[in-house]
Amino acid sequence: MSSPTEYYNSLPPITKAYGTLCFLFTAAFHLGLYNPYYIALIYELVFTRFQVWRLITNFFFLGPFSINFGIRLLMIARYGVQLEKGTFERRTADFLWMMIFGALSLLALSIIPIFRSLFLGISLVFMLVYVWSREFPNAQINIYGLVSLKAFYLPWAMLALDVIFGSPLVPDLLGIIAGHLYYFLTVLHPLATGKNILKTPMWVHKLVRRWGIGAQPAQPSNRAEPDRNTGGPFRGRSYRLSG
Question: Residue 99: which H helix or E strand, with range?
Answer without folding.
Answer: helix 92-109
